[in-house]
Design a protein that fits this description.
heterodimer; A: mainly alpha; two-stranded antiparallel ribbon; about 5% strand; B: alpha/beta; three-stranded antiparallel β-sheet; 12 helices; 12 strands; about 30% helix
């Protein structure tokens, strides 16, 4: 078992050599069992890396001009490597940037979510809880928010990642769903924070059903205006939802908002903390009907919204929809129906258990359908970078050009513009455009062109680890294109003078970079 | 060189020495051989559901005034007054184009640009993602999504044979637009501002290509095509003395400021000039899902849309006889505003047609009005023109013959609106 081999390549960003050993010795089930407990998610080594990491911040001095809010753009020029502070601080720390009387350079406003992006890259390479990190990414995509949608979302991103997604990434979906519904990031991104009784905002209610839970396959809008005709409605178990369910769900979530100084009445205002709050006065308290279920008027605070979360989280369409998405992400772009169904069954059986999601992932990863899916999925650009970094001995220090390259490969971190989240399919990632950018990505990492870290393995090869270029070339061809690849013709086509000693690290980096363009290395 | 109706007429008007056959020569699809003056169609997707009522606004409509605060309508006076775009068909309506769209207003007045209002998909579907898929497939509703696997332009383009080494269809973005899905000669081409470089030299490119030719599956195919497209485009883009691609300088400021649509249209312009055989291009213009804070966001979106289209039109002035742009969105937005200074998902929207063949300066399609009885489900601007009507007329105009029924299966266009002539 090699760190680049399936199934590790499928379930990790970049498996460590210890992972390969564990699977080789104890088998996949044992390794998976440990991964699903995610005990190493906050290991001292990883925390040490995050704490000692310094992320560059750079901007010009303020021009001394007044901003529209009356504050003066007065700040000194900045160019420093600064430690991460928002990623562990309560949301109020980042939210303080949004003081309406203050003005800061853009880079300071972006800093909270830039820290999350940096931590994401560091964890992708260095966390031992690899499957956990992949699940965190899965839920970030499933419950997508756009960090640059506005400054509030960006400032809420550290809390979203840390307090909303991470605690539940292998936990219980119903709990995760409520954590998302009450998260400042989602409340702002899908406009529920400004939803008010009598002119409610449908954005969250719709995407809750279409994207977060039941899925578009359960949107039965040919029954618009005829909720009773939706199959199963008479028994209170409708097969799907219609626009009226969206409208009623939006009413149920009125009053779920974020403390941001809003005026409550003539005398009082909410504080500006960035925290979730329920405002009874903005809630539409009258009776409702969601998914053929009657809601009594004047329910207790938050009860209407929670009831919608129950109805959607436990709906059988949700089990199928989310399990289909898990199988699409971890098995193949068109996963076998048998697996989706058996996973949905596990999902439903564990619906109220604290480790529901882990149970489903275990089912999927140990299924024969999964075992038969080798080579079926493209790596995400971050997984490509991380796995290349692993074998080339690169730290993968997060830098702006690295983010830019990931974006040009189709993975702008926390930058997917629409609430549906980024696809993981070959159709999406393996377009000529993105593939070309992937070749750039590995070539530039090998050359350390973006200060992402020295390729220590390549340096060691140049310092006597490999006698001739032919040996190094053969090693990298077989590493990336597979042990069956015949290196001779490839290296000949490259124009490598095979007899030369392998002492030029630049030449070695070139060779390794080209080898990593191999199609086999793009897939898992 | 084969001719279609439009370039025949244009050639005749220009006095070119053409072999005339006593009338327009009809053909199954666009001419595709190198050098042919084939039409170029550009499709702009206003993703997220553009509020057509806020873009092209019946500003004196009393129902609209009652349903929305002033900042979600277009003003007819004051410093934010919209551009007056009168339409013969509805002379009593004070049509106002959003104030941030001076370029579109200018093109309308020059009769280069027309609008089709109250347009959309027939099925009442208010899901962005389903509605976009419906449009990509050229379908009437979601029922067709299960089996109609490919895009409507894929079906259209697939009818003609083409010489190798051409790029007939491109998405000017990272990933392929849905209307091209299933057309194997369609490519996604990102930002061409700095050419289309590869990270390795020709020798290495050859070595990598060999690996991809041997590989099975999606990666292998994509890699071979990536290298072929890169070679083809790279061969036709200008380079400096040192062999480096010359950065594209035309309309730089306007394109740079316009985000996705600016990048996309710049790529299209560059490919048009590189003469790579372009027939169809798809460009995204996102950000229209304005549930909240619409006035500011919408203003920015309109600005990007208008300035990018204006810049593009100036940039390709030598090709005005060949290029037609159609812009559309998956649906419009609710007549009544919400309390977030935004609007929720609606039905009828606005489509824009500009360029070659467009009988501009008009607002086309039946206008249902905004009285409660005229609204769909009493809340939304009704869809009175099927989006496929506009697309059918476009293709029929440029091909000079009735549209093959396979392009929009099951769809029969009613009488032409006469958008093109």
């Amino acid at each position: 078992m090699d760190v680049l081999d399936f199934p590790l390549s499928r379930l990790c960003y970049a498996a460590h050599s210890e992972d390969a050993l564990e699977v080789q010795r104890g088998g996949l089930p044992a390794w998976l069992g440990r991964q699903l407990e995610a005990k190493d998610a906050n290991s001292p080594d990883l925390q040490g890396r995050l704490h000692s990491f310094r992320l560059q911040i750079k901007y010009a001095a303020g021009d001394g001009q007044p901003a529209p809010n009356g504050a003066t753009k007065n700040w000194p020029a900045m160019d420093e490597a600064r430690s991460l502070r928002y990623f562990e601080a309560p949301i109020g720390t980042a939210w303080a940037l949004l003081d309406p009387k203050a003005i800061h350079p853009n880079e300071e406003y972006q800093r909270p979510w830039h820290e999350v992006a940096a931590a994401t890259v560091i964890r992708a390479v260095h966390s031992r809880a690899q499957l956990y990190e992949r699940m965190v990414a899965f839920w970030h995509d499933h419950f997508n928010v756009l960090a640059t949608d506005n400054r509030q979302v960006g400032c809420a991103l550290p809390a979203y990642d840390r307090d909303t997604i991470r605690p539940h990434a292998l936990g219980n979906f119903r709990e995760l769903l409520e954590a998302v519904a009450s998260s400042p990031a989602m409340l702002v991104y899908l406009s529920n924070a400004s939803s008010r009784a009598g002119g409610d905002n449908e954005n969250y209610g719709r995407e809750l059903m279409e994207l977060h839970t039941l899925g578009r396959g359960a949107y039965l809008n040919d029954h618009y205006g005829r909720w009773r005709d939706v199959p199963g409605a008479a028994e209170g178990k409708p097969a799907g939802y219609i626009d009226e369910d969206v409208y009623e769900a939006a009413r149920a979530f009125t009053g779920w908002t974020v403390e941001n100084g809003q005026r409550l009445d003539g005398a009082t205002e909410l504080p500006r903390t960035g925290k979730f709050v329920y405002v009874e006065g903005w809630h539409d308290g009258y009776q409702k009907r969601v998914l053929s279920t009657e809601f009594a008027p004047y329910a207790a605070p938050l009860a209407d919204g929670r009831k919608v979360l129950d109805l959607t989280a436990f709906h059988p369409a949700t089990a199928r929809f989310v399990c289909l998405k898990l199988c699409r992400t971890f098995v193949s772009d068109n996963p076998p129906q048998s697996l989706v169904e058996s996973a949905a069954k596990v999902w439903q059986e564990n619906a109220k258990k604290p480790n529901q999601i882990a149970a489903v992932m275990k089912h999927i990863a140990l299924s024969p359908e999964f075992a038969a899916s080798k080579g079926a999925k493209p790596k995400s650009p971050l997984a490509l970078a991380a796995s290349f970094a692993r074998v080339a001995g690169i730290d993968l220090t997060p830098t702006q050009p690295l983010y830019q390259s990931l974006a040009q490969c189709g993975q702008r971190l926390f930058g997917w513009p629409t609430p549906d989240g980024r696809p993981t399919s070959a159709e999406y990632y393996l377009t000529p455009e993105y593939l070309r950018e992937r070749w750039f990505l590995v070539a530039r990492l090998a050359a350390n062109a973006w200060n992402t870290g020295e390729p220590k393995t390549l340096t060691a090869q140049a310092n006597g680890g490999m006698p001739r270029l032919a040996d190094a070339g053969t090693y990298w061809v077989q590493r990336f294109a597979g042990p069956n690849a015949s290196p001779g013709p490839f290296l000949a086509a490259l124009g490598v003078d095979l007899g030369l000693p392998a002492k030029d690290p630049k030449r070695l980096a070139q060779i390794a970079g080209v080898c990593a363009a191999a199609p086999q290395f793009q897939m898992t | 060189m084969r001719l279609n109706r439009r370039n025949f007429l244009e050639g005749a008007l220009a006095g070119s020495a053409l072999v005339t056959l006593g009338g327009p020569l009809r053909q199954a699809a666009f001419a595709a051989e190198p050098g042919a003056q084939a039409p170029i169609l550009v499709f702009v997707h206003m993703r997220g559901a553009c509020d057509g009522l806020n873009l092209l606004c019946p500003s004196n409509d009393s129902s609209l005034i009652a349903a929305r605060p002033a900042e979600l309508r277009v003003a007819d006076s004051g410093d934010k007054a919209g551009h007056s775009v009168p339409s013969e068909a509805t002379p009593k309506i004070d049509w106002r184009l959003h104030s941030a769209a001076p370029e579109l207003a200018g093109l309308y007045k020059a009769k280069t640009l027309a609008f089709v209002h109250a347009a959309g998909i027939p099925e009442p579907n208010r899901s962005h993602f389903v509605a976009n898929d419906i449009m990509d497939r050229g379908a009437a509703g979601s029922g067709a999504l299960g089996h109609a696997g490919n895009g409507w332009l894929a079906r259209y383009l697939g009818q003609a044979k083409r010489a190798d080494g051409r790029l007939p269809a491109i998405s000017a973005s990272g990933s392929l637009a849905g209307e091209f899905a299933g057309f194997s000669s369609a490519f996604a081409v990102g930002d061409l501002a700095n050419g289309l470089p590869l990270p390795f030299d020709e020798k290495a490119a050859g070595a990598v290509e060999a690996l991809y030719r041997q590989a099975q599956g999606a990666a292998g195919t994509a890699g071979v095509r990536a290298l072929e497209a890169a070679k083809l485009i790279a061969a036709r883009l200008p380079r400096d003395a040192g062999g480096k691609f010359v950065p594209y300088a035309e309309q730089k400021e306007a394109y740079d400021k316009a985000g996705d649509i600016g990048r996309g249209l710049r790529t299209v312009a560059r490919l048009i000039k590189a003469d790579t055989g372009l027939e169809m291009a798809s460009v995204d213009c996102g950000g229209w899902d304005t549930h909240e804070g619409q006035p500011g966001r919408f203003q920015g979106n309109v600005q990007r849309l208008s300035s990018a289209l204006g810049a593009f039109w100036n940039d390709i002035s030598a090709y005005h006889g060949r290029v037609t742009v159609v812009a559309y969105s998956e649906f419009g937005r609710r007549l009544r505003a919400n309390k977030s200074a935004g609007t929720d998902h609606g039905r009828g929207g606005v489509m824009i047609a500009m360029g070659a063949g467009v009988k501009g300066g008009r607002i086309l399609g039946p206008w249902p009005g905004l009285e409660e009885a005229a609204l769909e489900e009493r809340v939304d601007l009704a869809v009175k023109t099927d989006y496929r009507q506009v697309l059918s007329e476009l293709l029929e105009y440029h091909s000079g013959q009735p549209l093959n029924a396979a392009v929009f299966p099951g769809y029969k266009a009613p009488a032409h609106l006469g958008i093109f002539a």
